[in-house]
Amino acid sequence: MIPNKVLEKIDKAKNILIITHQKPDGDAIGSTVALGKGLKKLGKEVDYYVDQNFEDKLRFFNEIEEFNKDLKDHYDLVLQLDCSTYDFTHHPESLEYDDLVVIDHHKSNAYDKESNYVKVTAATGELIYELLETLGIELDDEMKEAIFTAISTDTGSFQFSNTQASTFHVAEELFKDGHVFAPVSKRLHKQKSKQQLDMYADAIKAIETLKDGKICVITLPYETIEKNGGDLQITDDIANIGMDLDTAILSVLIKETEPENVRVSVRSKSPYDLDVSKLALEYGGGGHLRAAGFNVKGNPEEIKKEILGKIEEIFEI
Amino acid sequence: MIPNKVLEKIDKAKNILIITHQKPDGDAIGSTVALGKGLKKLGKEVDYYVDQNFEDKLRFFNEIEEFNKDLKDHYDLVLQLDCSTYDFTHHPESLEYDDLVVIDHHKSNAYDKESNYVKVTAATGELIYELLETLGIELDDEMKEAIFTAISTDTGSFQFSNTQASTFHVAEELFKDGHVFAPVSKRLHKQKSKQQLDMYADAIKAIETLKDGKICVITLPYETIEKNGGDLQITDDIANIGMDLDTAILSVLIKETEPENVRVSVRSKSPYDLDVSKLALEYGGGGHLRAAGFNVKGNPEEIKKEILGKIEEIFEI
Q1: Which pTM does this prediction carry?
Q2: What CATH number does the domain containing B166 carry?
Q3: Do B241 and A190 touch (CB under 8 A)?
């Protein structure tokens, strides 16, 4: 159920600004596009202030052309999407408004649940769908694809443990009139250039394992990266190859992005007690329990040896 | 709606044999396990005759231990799952039965739709879900995971264009009591052995493109397959690499699984009007608009040339 106060504030507002988090992902962009277009259908004036620093694969919504255009000094209502704190939003330096309403699915969100729409779901896109349905707004194909993008991104194509019955319910509604979403799924999760595929294959071929396959190390020297079109052709999933390997519980990707400039990504597999941020901190990097990274200067083979030594010291594998 | 004749035949039968296609995939195994366990709950004697030649990642159902045990000489009913021709099933050499009912989702299935349950859906698993629901059988967790395995496999985790509103509806029902399917998804779509990763990398390295990258052909000669541990190390996603390539709209995977025994998988990308089952039918195979396959004997390089000729004839690319 959407709080009445949220519906009242939307009803009252004539002009609305939508904001979301920095480096927006598929949930942020999809939620923004779907809600913005929906509110316009209700006759609202909608502006968007969105960090433009996001992946190319998300740039297929026409509505993105309206982002960051003709901003006003004052808004009746600001809608903050997919973000549990205002600090982490991308927002104009000085922003004046009568009301702010948060629509977010993060567990850590501490905004009051009476005047905001905060509910733990797989994606903010689910909440946007419910809101548009409650407001009686018909979804056009772009809005449907935007909500699908939100959900598909945050659930890793319905694979992560946050996926719920309600997630599938929204997907069912989106698919009901026969619109085909396969091209969007492909775009979000599969499509690669030949260079990206080759880089991926070279990364697999570079796998070295230690400790009966429990540790997986991939080293990509500059020549390999250059041959396949440079650092930008290294897709996210390359850092996760080690985690896809059935035997591995800790993995290290060492990439020499420029000669002697080395970026290291470390991953560990649940449920093992291996906090990879500890390794990253030793090199002035950062991250989380299961994913961390840092930069080092030097020869990638020598760096590999050093890192493997540190892993031996820090972790019991 | 499930044909009355199908329900009557199941009702009448005391002992039932379930068969499915050769080299069963997730849809075949998942459908078999869910239906078999369900019919046992109805008090039926159920046996399974299933080709044991399938991927390790599917071997997580306890019910698999019952496969191919204590087979009878005669069955009241044989249920043929996920298979559009009897020839393509894995079946006992001499099989006696009173009735045979086909439950299958393939478009190319030509069995009569009055006495079989043949309907185009994303997976046979969807039909099994509907059947179990109609029969009033409660699903245990293994049956839920079996149906999820069927659907998740055949839709590529809800990404392929065969995914429909009804597919999500079934998933929603499976998720309703909070059972978490993330470990199954990981098992089906992510975890790989070193040999499987190597095979995948070799497949990428074998990519050839034609027509400005619109056609993608991958040929895996027997030596490559043998080197990486054999046919069973060829994961489903290898047949889809061509579709992952951004430029490709039609792809062919030619694998010499045994010397001179060649299996061909063809894929086409939506929304292009390329019905790849047409090509498969020319070789006595079958499939769908977007995914089809067939077997040929001969040298893989020569077969490749011939197939490319046929593609030129059939499709305008």
Answers
A1: 0.83
A2: 3.90.1640.10
A3: no
